[in-house]
């Protein structure tokens, strides 16, 4: 069976998705939809036979489409995920899944007869996947203290036009990128965040509504504690330091990109080996989900928990106070 | 500097007294005259002190008044349980003696303020053992001072130590976990290191603290109602932020007994340092062991601190790290405890 995929969005992430989908057996990118036809055409050109579709609703309902990959602005995620779900399509939606929990609930409900995978690409990074496996295998007992250090250079395109800088469209930085770290916590610890305190430092431009750097102090449901430092403020694009320390009742696991194989060359500056291939693995997983060979690695309960934690973090940035995480909607889809 | 060795006495001889005494004993500029403590303290405290004296070949003086006076010694090392630190420092200063206190100088800000006042009144050297001489910290500070990192924007400090280190000859567990002796848990014990490092690197004061704490691991802390772990968010001047993680857990990410590392993001660069690096790793039949160069940052910090202290006392100078610095650390720690108790960010008592 070859799965026909409609890709909604034509930005940088959509480009990564299309490139990875085009390399997969059993998947055909049917169409790419974007607000800029020329850019959509350039992205579609990465997948042989893919067409540019001007209208997302038309793309979703096309008879040769069985699955929809929702990229684009976060504010549009709910609309297209719900439309795809109601049309019986399987959906992968980029992170963060939604801008609020009610939207997420509608997305989950709409895809209840198909499937919903959230693009938490970090789960597919080799080092993170290994970390999770070891914790799940009981290598350190119960995780109690987690420290995530995640420093990278500025990566957002679009200059001051970038939608990521508009909290009403991106949810703010704790939602836009903090979801990565919060999903990581939820996944590796099996816990949900209960209370979050956030503090930012806008290092590139103090006037930004979306600070490029922040840290979170997270109290989880089982009283374990996590510190997440996230900075998109390293001086050089491509710079990265990510360090994960998970201390459990019987051991500690550590990974740092500083320990990765190194290449120093003016010709090439590859990403750390510990994160490479994540998009490819994610897309392969999605194909397996769509073809009935597996369940989404992101469960609905985890999606809710990570987004709820991120939303609380964004509120904390605004209030300057710790915020309780809305856990009323916790739990996996029946 | 005279040719006569500096006469040093210990007031209280528990916790790190053995480590400090061994460092001082190797210094040819120093003669350890003796150790003492008040007779009314718990018997095990004096027994531990006497045992240490026997090990070191140093006299134990039963009457503190006999040792703690200018005719007998020049410098007092206060090394009791933390809850008695401030009072013993004040007594020592009042007696006209230069005084160095083990950290923390006090277990509450009011007591630290009293020490500051006593030091100002006495005009003697008064300082507190700290880790600002750690080579890793000095290295990072040199990068900041060279302008290589631009303006510091965020500092992250991690100090993780092993549960197995408790109950050793230098540290009875009760001295760390019984609040009547320790004044708190590991946040009281270790957060001062992070505060010192953050202030040393940035030159900025901490204005607000948020802390999450807990007895996360299966150790003696929970039974005593104190934390083994604290994760702390700090607001500094000019919008600069810092984070600190201090913890005592069963398995520390180190090939030694403690892990101490710092990450700094500046406007024009970032840097990381670690007390255990540079190092050489030895692989043997039973596993790997780290051999940090020159004994590692923690040991070097203590040695360099006392080296500087002895030089300062001999030359009549005050060490760069003052009791006011130590008082600031206590105030931040107190704010962190108030934050943990109230669940809210708390301003630091300036």
Tell me what you see in this structure.
Helix content of chain A is 33%, strand content 24%. Chain A is an alpha/beta fold and 334 residues long. A seven-stranded mixed β-sheet of chain A has the order 12-11-7-10-9-8-13. In chain A, strand 2, helix 2 and strand 3 form a beta-alpha-beta unit. Chain A is globular, with a radius of gyration of 19 Å. Chain A starts with a strand and ends in a 10-residue tail after the last strand. In chain A, 54% of the residues are buried. The mean pLDDT of chain A is 95. In chain B, 37% of the residues lie in helices and 26% in strands. In chain B, the strands form three sheets. A seven-stranded mixed β-sheet of chain B has the order 12-11-7-10-9-8-15. In chain B, strand 11 and strand 12 form a beta hairpin. The two termini of chain B are 37 Å apart. Classes of the chains: A alpha/beta (334), B alpha/beta (350). Chains A and B meet through strand 7, strand 8, strand 9, strand 10 and strand 11 of A and strand 7, strand 8, strand 9, strand 10 and strand 12 of B.
Short key terms for the protein model shown above:
heterodimer, A: 334 residues, alpha/beta, 7-stranded mixed β-sheet, 6-stranded parallel β-sheet, globular, B: 350 residues, 15 strands, 26% strand
């Amino acid at each position: 069976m070859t799965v026909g995929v409609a890709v909604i969005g034509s930005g940088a992430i959509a480009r990564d998705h299309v490139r990875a989908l085009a390399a997969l057996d059993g998947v055909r990118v049917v169409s790419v939809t974007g607000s800029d036809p020329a850019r959509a055409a350039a992205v579609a050109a990465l997948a042989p036979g893919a067409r540019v579709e001007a209208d997302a609703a038309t793309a979703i309902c096309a008879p040769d489409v069985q699955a929809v990959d929702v990229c684009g602005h976060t504010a549009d995620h709910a609309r297209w995920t719900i439309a795809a779900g109601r049309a019986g399509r399987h959906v992968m939606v980029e992170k963060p899944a939604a801008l609020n929990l009610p939207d997420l609930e509608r997305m989950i409900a709409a895809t209840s007869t198909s499937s919903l995978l959230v693009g938490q690409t970090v789960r597919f990074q080799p080092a993170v996947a290994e970390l999770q496996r070891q914790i799940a295998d009981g290598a350190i007992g119960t995780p109690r203290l987690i420290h995530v250090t995640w420093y990278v250079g500025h990566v957002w395109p679009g200059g001051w036009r970038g939608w990521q800088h508009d909290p009403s469209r991106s949810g703010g930085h704790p939602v836009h990128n903090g979801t990565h770290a919060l999903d990581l916590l939820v996944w590796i610890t099996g816990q949900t965040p209960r209370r979050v305190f956030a503090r930012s430092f806008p290092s590139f431009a103090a006037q930004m509504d979306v600070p490029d750097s922040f840290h979170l102090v997270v109290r989880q449901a089982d009283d374990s504690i996590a510190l997440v430092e996230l900075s998109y403020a390293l001086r050089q694009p491509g710079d990265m330091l990510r360090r994960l320390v998970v201390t459990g009742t019987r051991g500690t696991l550590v990974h740092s990109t500083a320990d990765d194989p190194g290449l120093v060359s003016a010709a090439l500056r590859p990403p750390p080996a510990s994160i490479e291939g994540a998009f490819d693995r994610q897309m392969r997983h999605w194909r397996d989900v769509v073809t009935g060979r597996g369940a989404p690695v992101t469960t609905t309960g985890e999606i809710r928990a990570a987004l709820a934690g991120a939303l609380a973090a964004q509120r904390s940035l605004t209030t300057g106070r710790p915020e309780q995480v809305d856990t009323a909607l916790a739990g996996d889809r029946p | 500097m005279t040719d006569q060795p500096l006469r040093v006495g210990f007031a209280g001889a528990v916790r790190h007294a053995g480590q400090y005494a061994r460092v001082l004993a190797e210094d040819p500029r120093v003669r350890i005259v003796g150790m003492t403590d008040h007779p009314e303290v718990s018997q095990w405290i004096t027994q531990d002190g006497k045992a240490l004296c026997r090990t070191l070949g140093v006299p134990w003086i039963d009457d503190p008044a006999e040792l703690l006076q200018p005719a007998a010694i020049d410098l007092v090392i206060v090394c009791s349980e933390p809850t008695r630190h401030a009072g013993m420092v004040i007594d020592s200063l009042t007696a006209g003696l230069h005084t160095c206190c083990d950290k923390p100088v006090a277990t509450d800000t009011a007591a630290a303020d009293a020490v500051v006042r006593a030091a100002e009144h006495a005009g003697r050297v008064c300082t507190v053992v700290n880790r600002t001489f750690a080579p890793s910290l000095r290295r990072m500070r040199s990068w900041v001072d060279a302008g290589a990192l631009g303006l510091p924007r965020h500092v992250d400090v991690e100090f993780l130590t092993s549960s197995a280190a408790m109950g050793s000859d230098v540290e009875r567990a009760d001295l760390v976990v019984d609040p009547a002796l320790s004044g708190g848990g590991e946040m009281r014990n270790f957060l001062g290191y992070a505060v010192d490092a953050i202030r040393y690197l940035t030159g900025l004061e901490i204005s607000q603290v948020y802390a999450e704490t807990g007895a996360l691991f299966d150790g003696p802390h929970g039974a005593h109602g104190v934390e083994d772990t604290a994760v702390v968010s700090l607001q500094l001047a000019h919008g600069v932020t810092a984070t600190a993680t201090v913890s005592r857990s069963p398995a520390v990410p180190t090939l030694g007994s403690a892990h101490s590392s710092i990450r700094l993001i500046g406007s024009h660069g970032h840097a990381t340092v670690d007390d255990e690096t540079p190092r050489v790793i030895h692989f043997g039949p039973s596993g790997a062991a780290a051999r940090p160069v020159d004994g590692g940052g923690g040991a070097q910090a203590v040695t360099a601190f006392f080296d500087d202290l002895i030089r300062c006392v001999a030359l009549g100078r005050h060490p760069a790290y003052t009791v006011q610095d130590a008082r600031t650390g206590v105030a931040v720690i107190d704010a962190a405890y108030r934050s943990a108790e109230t669940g809210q960010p708390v301003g630091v008592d300036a």
